[in-house]
């Protein structure tokens, strides 16, 4: 047995646990420690780890919906998105679960959302040079991930049924993954690892590139047939995720290709013409008018306007690192910002 097992066995035995039970618990703890996960024996133990009263933690687990407030935000293309924001104490518990458990679990290399070091830019960049592109969107993404799948994540970690149930309750809202909880994005990636594996297998069979950015699924390559499209949709729906048929697009060589909001060409990425045009106009007048842009003579005073334009230019440069115009104007805007602050 490992030193960790013996340490837990000695600790449990010294606290009055019978030898057989102590051996079972020590093995349980040893397996969790080997996986770099916190040892949680029961909800009372979890309340001690969190520093939260057992009665409060029990209410959070037993009636988690009471610890959320909900509101709606408009979607970019119409409609509204429901957000379920946890109250501070539940938010603290979820952050603990996220940092101590979920962030230590593997996700697929195909997942680009909610992942440190990956972004929608890298997601789009994977498809540069594609002749054909298949785009698929999952409908009601978070709401379709049920508590049984969340619970299975914690069972796979090695936690007992009771502990897995408590942890999954703390990460769910009316039995689904709530959009607004800090645990939901990373849980979605962990849960969809199996689907990502299956879709990557399809991509390899047809010599395609596959990426997933949350609910945006993209395949690209030299040729994508309707049969491939149907097979991909079949796998997604078999997993329990409904496909939004209105947002399934099979793009051919002459079609404009946009992946996670960025234009994909034969050899580069580009932002939209609207963004490029807006930045060019805004940066031109800022550089031309200088400090006068902020004294109220040319337009109403907007204190954060310069930072907004610099942020827009910095984003464009991330997408288009060879854009010398943006690089040069950003240098001039930085000088303007330094002059403005030197006079404060």
List keywords for this structure.
single chain, 9 strands, four-stranded antiparallel β-sheet, 12% strand, three-stranded antiparallel β-sheet, 344 residues
At a glance:
The chain has helices spanning 3-14, 19-34, 43-50, 54-62, 88-100, 120-125, 147-157, 161-170, 183-191, 193-205, 226-238, 273-289, 305-319, 324-342, and strands spanning 68-74, 80-86, 132-137, 209-213, 216-221, 249-251, 258-259, 262-264, 269-270.
Description:
The longest helix has 19 residues, at 324-342. This protein has 344 residues and is α+β, with helices and mostly antiparallel strands. The chain has 14 helices and 9 strands.
- Tertiary shape: globular
**Which secondary-structure class do the elements indicate?**
alpha+beta
Over the alpha carbons, how many angstroms does the gyration radius reach?
25 Å
Q: Compute the average pLDDT.
A: 92
Biggest sheet layout: 4 strands, antiparallel
SSE ordering: HHHHEEHHEHHHHEEHEEEEHHH
Q: In DSSP terms, counting alpha (H) and pi (I) runs of 4 or more, how many helices?
A: 14
Distance between the termini: 67 Å
User: Strand portion, in percent?
Assistant: 5-15%
Strand order of the largest sheet: 4-5-3-6
DSSP strand tally? 9
Low-confidence stretches: none
DSSP helix fraction: 40-55%
């Amino acid at each position: 047995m490992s030193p960790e097992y013996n340490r837990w066995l000695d600790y449990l035995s010294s606290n009055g646990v019978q030898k057989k039970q102590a051996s079972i618990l020590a093995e349980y703890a040893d397996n969790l420690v080997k996986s770099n996960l916190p040892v949680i024996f029961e909800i009372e133990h979890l309340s001690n780890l969190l520093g939260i009263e057992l009665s409060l933690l029990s209410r959070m687990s037993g009636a988690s919906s009471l610890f959320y407030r909900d509101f709606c935000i408009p979607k970019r293309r119409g409609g509204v998105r429901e957000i379920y924001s946890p109250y501070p104490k539940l938010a603290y518990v979820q952050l603990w679960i996220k940092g101590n458990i979920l962030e230590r679990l593997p996700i697929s290399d195909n997942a680009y959302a909610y992942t440190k070091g990956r972004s929608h830019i890298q997601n789009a960049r994977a498809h540069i040079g594609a002749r054909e592109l298949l785009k698929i969107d999952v409908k009601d993404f978070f709401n379709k991930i049920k508590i049984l799948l969340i619970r299975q994540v914690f069972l796979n970690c090695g936690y007992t049924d009771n502990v897995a149930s408590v942890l999954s309750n703390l990460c769910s809202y009316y039995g689904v993954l709530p959009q607004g909880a800090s645990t939901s994005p990373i849980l979605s990636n962990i849960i969809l690892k199996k689907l990502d594996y299956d879709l990557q297998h399809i991509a390899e069979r047809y010599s395609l590139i596959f990426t997933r950015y949350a609910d945006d699924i993209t395949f690209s390559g030299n040729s994508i047939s309707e049969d491939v499209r149907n097979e991909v949709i079949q796998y997604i729906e078999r997993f329990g995720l409904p496909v939004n048929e209105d947002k399934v697009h099979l793009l051919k060589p002459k079609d404009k290709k946009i992946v996670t909001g960025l234009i994909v060409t034969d050899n580069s990425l580009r932002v939209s013409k609207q963004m490029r045009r807006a930045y060019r106009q805004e940066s031109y007048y800022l550089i031309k008018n200088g400090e006068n842009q902020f004294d109220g003579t040319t337009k109403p005073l907007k204190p954060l306007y310069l930072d907004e334009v610099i942020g827009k230019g910095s984003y464009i440069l991330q997408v288009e690192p060879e854009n010398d115009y943006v690089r040069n104007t950003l240098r001039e805007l930085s000088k303007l910002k330094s002059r403005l602050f030197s006079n404060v």
